[in-house]
Amino acid sequence: MTSHRPSPRLHRLALTSIAATALLSALSAQAVGRLADVQVVDRDSGETLQVHRHRGEHWVAGRPGARYAVSVRNTTGARVMTVVSVDGVNVISGETAALDQTGYVLSPWQQYDIHGWRKSSSEVAAFHFTAAPASYAARTGHPDHVGVIGVAVFREKVQPVTVPEPEQRPEPLPYGPHGPHASRERLARSEAAGAAPAPADAPAAAQDSAARSTAPRLGTGHGEREDAWVGHTTFERRSARPDDLIRIRYDSHENLVAMGVINPRQQPPRPNPFPAPPQPGYVPDPQ
C-alpha cells in the first residue's frame, strides 16, 4: 500500500487474499446494498447484527467491547472496488474518508470480512465497539462522524476493443480533384480529432453528517493486531461517482431504544441452553 494519494481514475488497491474469502450460498436478510451485500458481524458471538430501518436509515446495535467485522460481498458477475469507511475514516489509509481514495477490489461474487484498520499488507488493528471518545477516529482528530459505516461501490471501466482501420488506397493522381491541399486538410482534421482529450469526470466529494446525541455514543476502537493478508492490483473506475453507496449507522442497544430505533417491547430473545421440552425417563438405547 503506497502512502501517496492515487489519481481519481487509476488506483493501486488492496485485493483480498484467497485464504480470507468465501462464497455465500444464500443472501442474508441482514444485508444492505444493491451491488454489494454489506453486513456487520459480531466476531465474539458470531452473530450477524440485525438491521433496523428507521426514518430512511439503517441501524445496528453493537455491544461495547465486542470485536466486529464489516462483511462485504460482491453480488455482480464483474470486479468491483469498494471504498470502505468507519467513523468517517478510510479503513485502509486512515485518511478522512473521500470517494476517490483506495479500497478493496472484489472478484465476481467474492465475499470478504474486513476485521480492522489496515496497518500493512499483512496486518490489521481489530475493530471493536467502544465509547466514542476512545474511538480511533476521535483519538486521531476525526470525531465528527463517529457511529457510521460507509461502503462506496464502483464498477470497473470496460476497456474498448481497438479495431484496425482499413488500409486506404492511394489516389491515382497526385493532383486530382481533391488535390494535395484537401488531403492535408483532411489529415490535419484527423490528427486534431485524435489528439482531443476525453473529458474527465470530476470526483464527487462525500458529504455526510452524524446525528447529534446527548447520550454517550459508540465508536470503533483501534484493537489488537491480527494477520490479514492482501495483495495489490490496478482498477480503473467506470465513473468517479459510486454505482452504489451504502450507509449503516450503529450505536448501543440502549441508545437505539432511547432514540426510538428499536421498540423496547421487542427485546431480542434470550438463548436457552436447554431448549427441548422436559421428558420424563432415562437415556434411551440407541436404535
Mind telling me the C-alpha Rg? 27 Å
Task: Give the amount of beta strand, in percent.
Answer: 25-35%
Uncertain spans: 1-28, 172-213
Count of discrete domains? 1
Helix content: under 10%
Helical/strand content category? mainly beta
Order of helices and strands: EEEEEEEEEEEEHEHEEEH
Major beta sheet, specifics? 9 strands, mixed
N→C terminal distance = 60 Å
Overall strand count: 16
**Separate helix tally:** 3
Average pLDDT confidence is 77
List keywords for this structure.
single chain, 287 residues, 9-stranded mixed beta sheet, 3 helices, 33% strand, disordered N terminus
Describe what this molecule looks like in 3D.
This protein is mainly beta and 287 residues long. It has one domain. 9% of the residues lie in helices and 33% in strands. The protein contains three helices and 16 strands. The strands form three sheets. Strands 1, 4, 5, 7, 8, 9, 13, 15 and 16 form a nine-stranded mixed sheet that branches. A four-stranded antiparallel sheet has the order 2-10-6-3, with no helix packed on it. The longest helix has 17 residues, at 179-195. The protein is globular, with a radius of gyration of 27 Å. The model is unreliable at 1-28 and 172-213 (pLDDT under 50).
Helix-strand blueprint:
Blueprint: E1 10-16, E2 21-22, E3 36-42, E4 52-54, E5 57-62, E6 68-74, E7 80-86, E8 89-90, E9 104-106, E10 111-114, E11 116-118, E12 123-131, H1 136-139, E13 148-155, H2 179-195, E14 218-227, E15 230-236, E16 244-252, H3 253-258
